[in-house]
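Issue 218. Parser rejects a valid record. Input:
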Amino acid sequence: MIYTYMKREIPFPGMATFDAPSREFCKQRRMVSNTPLQALMTMNDEAFFEAAQAFAKRVFQKEGQLPEQISQAYQLATTEIPDEETISKLMEAYETFLKNYQSEPQLAADINATPEEAARTLLCSVILNLDEALTR
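Output the parser choked on:
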């Protein structure tokens, strides 16, 4: 759960980006939308990055092979079982992230992580940024 400081007159920018109601009136349903600003926010906001770090620690601390762990992460974020193509694409993304962090270990050190931890965090950030995870 994420806690934030709320002001009556000025909504929290993150909530405004995700089309939260203004709180002036009670609403039964929220409008569902998907805009480029939402993706930009989830990929760059510190709170979402920290959520991805915690998510990566939760998923990858369990025993098992990497494809099983990635499948578990996908299931937790989207409540759907990933197909083989999705798992292979996420595995490919993880390998790319890992190669980048291994070639430049200072990038991983900037976030106080090993290259493996940094690649896992970035992979979880991608999973949390999926349309299935954000709008369902």
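Fixed in the parser; the record now loads. The first helix runs from residue 13 to 17.
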